[in-house]
Amino acid sequence: MAAALACVAFSVAPVAATSYSMVKEYYGSTFFNDWVFYNNYDNLTNGDVTYVSASEGTQDQLAYVDSSTDHAIIKVDNTSTVVYDNKRNSVRITSSDSFSVGSLWVADMYHVPYGCSVWPAWWSQAPVWPQGGEIDTFEGINLNTQNQMSLHTETGCTAVSQNQTSTLITSTNCSYAANEDQGCIVTDPSTASYGAGFASAGGGAFVTEVASTGINIWFFERSQIPSTLSGNASTIDTSTFGIPVANWPSTGCNIEQFFEPQNLIFDITLCGDWADGVAWNTSTCTGVCYNDWVMGNGTDYDNAYFEVGYVRVFSTTGSNTVVSPTSASSGSSPSASTSSTPSNSGAGFPHGDVWMSATVVVVVGLLSSTLF
């Protein structure tokens, strides 16, 4: 995924505005109710972590709701001492529900994980990969200062003539079979979109729209969040968002063909296929990724956490189109043996049923503060 950035100029025009009504919210004391914990070692991206169960996450304070803020905390274990050949505990959760093409999800985050060896992501994937597609809204590694967004699909989806503010285009072929599955990558030019810069700015909001006309991602740092995303708004009007930072129009990628209903995923792994190797050697991090960072007392991971204010899902129809899963419940564990083929971007095994509606929106919120 780490490739030299190619600056490509595209004409910029407004994207079509759409209004949405809220149909799903993850917030406060019930935030973790509708997520499945992976509960297995990272056999998807070869990271040096063990993803905990729901009960372990609560007991060890790796996945919990801060009662003073009502914000959800998702973090890497920063208190245990890890000895050689062991893994550090972390969290990977997948929404029980999935959301159909035509949806838009917004993530308002206050803090995101960062630091040497750290590889966090807020993304989505269909239950069968790569057939159902993958959307990486937020992803970064090590001491990077900018968020990287991408799509991963079967062969036939490309990024063309983007109407977007970013000119940092690494690749335009979204196929998993091309370029070692780096996907079609767009990097946010803002240094407030990832890492220490994100925390210093008080976090921000990520908005992901999955419409039949294209996929759009917006990022607003805290001071620039539109009023339509503030408070407890039950409706969203994308006309207030302006031009997205990343855009993959349907003229180059048939969204309804390449993207099936998506499960939402938060995860934090360490080292692994991307954060280690070539990316590690070209970063400013020192030593050996596992030996000098994962091993030890864990204080290097004091900043390796998400703080999420909320996740909200909206639909253009305003109707309740959630299909509750029948074979999984919050805290259950998917079997590692049934995992789909992972991508190089953090893709792996999602779990859940589908949304039957064609248009949906999701919102997520995170906070910057000194917690640990």
Automatic annotation (TrEMBL):
<dbReference type="GO" id="GO:0004553">
    <property type="term" value="F:hydrolase activity, hydrolyzing O-glycosyl compounds"/>
</dbReference>
<dbReference type="GO" id="GO:0009251">
    <property type="term" value="P:glucan catabolic process"/>
</dbReference>
<feature type="signal peptide">
    <location>
        <begin position="1"/>
        <end position="17"/>
    </location>
</feature>
<dbReference type="Pfam" id="PF26113">
    <property type="entry name" value="GH16_XgeA"/>
</dbReference>
<protein>
    <recommendedName>
        <fullName>GH16 domain-containing protein</fullName>
    </recommendedName>
</protein>
<dbReference type="InterPro" id="IPR013320">
    <property type="entry name" value="ConA-like_dom_sf"/>
</dbReference>
<keyword id="KW-0732">Signal</keyword>
<feature type="domain" description="GH16">
    <location>
        <begin position="8"/>
        <end position="319"/>
    </location>
</feature>
<dbReference type="InterPro" id="IPR050546">
    <property type="entry name" value="Glycosyl_Hydrlase_16"/>
</dbReference>
<dbReference type="InterPro" id="IPR000757">
    <property type="entry name" value="Beta-glucanase-like"/>
</dbReference>
<feature type="region of interest" description="Disordered">
    <location>
        <begin position="324"/>
        <end position="344"/>
    </location>
</feature>
